[in-house]
Amino acid sequence: MNYKLVICGDGNFMDQLKKLISESGVEHKVVLKGMMEPDELFHFAQTATIGVAFPEKDGLNQWLALPNKFFDYLHAGLPQITVDYPEYKKLNEEYHVAVLVSDISPQTIAAAINNLMQNDVLLEQLKQNCLKAREILTWQQEEKKFIAFYKEIPFKK
Q: Rounded distance, CA 48 to CA 79, Å?
């Protein structure tokens, strides 16, 4: 791929990642930004072209989860490439804000990134869909559903 990868955050494998970047000679293509405050991360994400997130399916938790990163990208107006796990798929069927992949092999990820970066029409469509979806998928909207749900629960006095 001929694109720069910027990694924000930190993790258990950062030392291994730094070594891999060095051994592969891709220091000019991979930038490690480290930890960022949420506001700084949001503004930084708005300068990116796409977001990528590829959690492994090590357990039921990852398979059924819907991490904040999905919504962080969406609210930044950032199309994303991620996995086709059930919750991602459900939201993407409704809002079409991402390209979903069925496996996280390097070849699949590279192909998805290259395809999206070369398809200006799809990239712009996903971005516009993010901007629309972020008006709907807000805490203010979800709060109403949350409160209505709890009002339906019969509590014993």
A: 9
Distances (CA, A) of 24 to 3, 18, 27, 30, 124: 15, 10, 8, 11, 32
Instruction: Encode 11-28: b = buried (16+ Cβ within 10 Å), e = exposed.
Output: eeeeeeeeeebeeeeeee
Is 126 within 8 Å of 101 (Cβ atoms)?
no
What confidence tens digit (pLDDT) does each residue in 30-61 have?
A: 999 999 999 999 999 999 999 999 987 788 88
Asked if residue 59 lies in contact with residue 71, where contact means CB atoms within 8 angstroms, the answer is no
Burial code (b: 16+ CB inside 10 Å, e: under 16) for 40-57 equals ebeeebeebebbbeebee
> Rounded to 5 degrees, what angle do the CA atoms 15, 20, 24 make?
155
pTM of the model: 0.86
Report residue 83 as tokens. 């996995």
